[in-house]
């Protein structure tokens, strides 16, 4: 243990004192970290000297965005990591792309050097499967001596790995569920979760396994830029393992105190129907914010002075459907109007979603609904290719393309192959983590690989800031998730001063209503976090159909 850490440990002998200091640190602009002998803050050989955006020559310091340089912690990261070290159980909710991983890596370094990993004590990191190898590489980069294992392979291979003298184990929620009984035999000094969506549903088996391990660990850190996406009760599931139950009592009491509901009658084709509760609003929000404030740290790029986040320039592109697409869409519209007339408010949500998805597929291109990719049947694909081919706006740029439909992704792949444009794809057809990491690395390192196509597999936790453009072929009706997508390219250490998010929308369709709905339905997020962003609520089946029919 370094002298600074030894002195700090003596000063913070009681939990009460730690929490008092944590509250003071939280509002600080900068904290002087103790000397961390295991931390790598040196530049790589290629960047001993480099030129900043403004032409300034930098010497002897790491270059932001370089995946081989060490990391010189920024002010907000010294504050965040020190606060986590003091709090022990906390939610780090910094905005997407601000470098939450470095906050937790610094925490791990302080834990290691203060003796918290002595003996058989370990750290468990639970993250989404696509981010596992990225986490491993990031930790190796900043702490080359840290012993890290990844929970992957067959059960026998995983058992062999668990027997190694690792200090940090990185695992996905699905694998955790398979091996949670084995992992209970280890003594964990900390459990860290990164964008684990299952925590929002406390009845989920993975969430239960995480809570069970967290209850036996002195530290629990939750990392999520979007811990609240749609409904306030999600926050109860997120906060439960860091003191939420002690703060609010049972989930029933939480809902009773902060959520307004009403009884709704649901008709049934097969019986008399039933009553159910529907969330209609929230109450006592200021009290809720005050209670969670000590355990939550949230900073947006505008709060952080020394982060080189690029500006985001949104570009909402409205396109006219081709005649073949228009004919299909009008056929859908007439069918939807008939359903609304005959069913009204009793329309089933699942039926409405099926109609909405079909409409979205038609808007993207008829290839999305299984038809051949013929000329003038996919206006969005044509728009994309015009800009990627020689002479186009993206001809020399790195571009991330988000698409939801497998058929349209295959059509994009075929078109890129025909145009001899290098690309990689990260989607469900490629579940292997190593293959996905190889695709990500090629997109970063190979100048011939200009396009990365991704589904929701790229939505969180992936660093793609080498790209200047994100093209959303499709929209997700959830602003928090759309923000996460933009955060793949708008990140600390981006190669660019400005990045562009292109939302492709079709005129006189349900897509014309998307942005208005997103802008209208975000008041909860604004009230909880005090930001200018809002939150998209769950729409009823009738409202989903009205997006098409209006």
Distance between the termini: 66 Å
Radius of gyration: 25 Å
Shape, per Cα inertia axes: globular
β-strand amount: 15-25%
Mean pLDDT over all positions: 87
* Order of strands across the main sheet: 5-6-4-7-8-3-11
Q: How is the main sheet built?
A: 7 strands, parallel
Q: How many helical elements?
A: 21
Low-confidence stretches: 533-539
Broad structural category: alpha/beta
Count every beta strand, where a strand is a DSSP E run of 2 or more residues. 17
Helical fraction equals 40-55%
List the keywords.
21 helices; seven-stranded parallel beta sheet; alpha/beta; 550 residues; 40% helix
How would you summarize what this structure contains?
The chain is an alpha/beta fold and 550 residues long.
Structural account:
The chain has about 550 residues and is an alpha/beta fold. The protein has helices spanning about 5-10, 15-25, 75-85, 100-115, 130-140, 155-160, 175-185, 205-215, 235-240, 245-250, 250-260, 285-290, 325-345, 350-365, 380-390, 405-420, 435-445, 480-485, 515-520, 525-530, 540-550; strands spanning about 50, 55-60, 90, 120-125, 150, 170, 185-195, 220-225, 260-265, 275-280, 295, 310-320, 400, 420-425, 450-455, 470, 500-505. The strands form four sheets. It has a seven-stranded parallel beta sheet with strand order 5-6-4-7-8-3-11, sandwiched between helices. The protein has a six-stranded parallel beta sheet with strand order 12-17-16-13-15-14, sandwiched between helices. Strand 7, helix 8 and strand 8 form a beta-alpha-beta unit. Helix 13 (about 325-345) runs antiparallel to helix 14. The longest helix has 21 residues, at about 325-345. It is globular. The termini are far apart.
């Amino acid at each position: 243990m370094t002298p600074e850490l030894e002195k700090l440990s003596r000063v913070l002998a009681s939990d009460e004192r730690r929490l008092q200091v944590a509250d003071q640190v939280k509002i600080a602009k900068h904290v002087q970290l103790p000397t961390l002998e295991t931390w790598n803050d040196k530049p790589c050989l290629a960047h001993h000297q480099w030129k900043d955006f403004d032409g300034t020559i930098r010497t002897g310091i790491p270059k932001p965005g370089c995946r081989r340089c060490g990391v010189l912690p920024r002010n907000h990261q010294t504050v965040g990591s020190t606060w986590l070290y003091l709090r022990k159980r906390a939610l780090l909710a910094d905005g997407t792309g601000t470098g939450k991983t470095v906050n937790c890596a610094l925490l791990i370094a302080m834990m290691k050097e203060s003796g918290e990993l002595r003996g058989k004590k370990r750290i468990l990191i639970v993250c989404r499967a696509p981010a596992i190898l990225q986490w491993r590489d990031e930790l190796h980069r900043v702490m080359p001596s840290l012993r890290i294992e990844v929970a992957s392979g067959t059960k026998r291979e995983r058992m062999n790995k668990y027997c190694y003298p690792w200090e940090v184990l990185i695992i996905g929620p699905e694998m955790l569920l398979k091996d949670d009984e084995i992992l209970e035999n280890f003594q964990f000094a900390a459990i860290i979760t990164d964008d684990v969506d299952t925590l929002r549903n406390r009845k989920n088996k993975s969430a239960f396994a995480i809570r069970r391990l967290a209850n036996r660990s002195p530290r629990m850190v939750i990392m999520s830029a979007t811990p609240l996406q749609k409904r306030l009760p999600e926050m109860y599931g997120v906060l439960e393992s860091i003191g939420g139950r002690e703060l609010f009592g049972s989930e029933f009491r939480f809902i009773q105190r902060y959520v307004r509901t009403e009884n709704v009658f649901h008709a049934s084709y097969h019986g008399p129907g039933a009553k159910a509760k529907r969330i209609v609003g929230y109450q006592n929000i200021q009290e809720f914010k005050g209670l969670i404030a000590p355990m939550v740290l949230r900073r947006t790029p505008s709060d952080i002075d020394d982060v080189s986040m690029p500006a985001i320039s949104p570009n909402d592109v409205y396109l006219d459907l081709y005649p073949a697409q228009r004919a299909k869409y009008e056929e859908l519209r007439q069918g939807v109007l008939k359903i609304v007339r005959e069913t009204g408010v009793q329309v089933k949500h699942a039926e409405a979603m099926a109609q909405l998805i079909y409409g979205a597929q038609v808007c993207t291109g008829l290839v999305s609904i299984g038809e051949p990719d013929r000329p003038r049947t996919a206006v969005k694909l044509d728009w994309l290719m015009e800009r990627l081919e020689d002479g186009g706006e993206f001809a020399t740029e790195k571009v991330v393309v988000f698409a939801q439909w497998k058929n349209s992704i295959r059509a994009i792949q075929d078109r890129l192959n025909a145009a001899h444009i290098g690309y990689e794809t990260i989607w469900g057809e490629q579940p292997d983590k190593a293959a996905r990491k190889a695709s990500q690395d090629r997109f970063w390192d190979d100048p011939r690989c200009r396009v990365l196509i991704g589904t929701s597999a790229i939505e969180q936790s992936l660093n793609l800031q080498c790209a200047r453009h994100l093209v959303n072929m499709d929209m997700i009706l959830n602003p928090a998730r759309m923000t996460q997508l933009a955060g793949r390219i708008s990140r600390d250490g981006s190669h660019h001063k400005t990045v562009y998010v292109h939302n492709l929308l079709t005129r006189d369709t349900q897509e014309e209503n998307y942005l208005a709905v997103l802008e209208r339905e975000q008041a909860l997020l604004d009230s909880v976090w005090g930001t200018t962003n809002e939150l998209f609520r769950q729409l009823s089946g009738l409202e989903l159909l009205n997006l098409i029919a209006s």
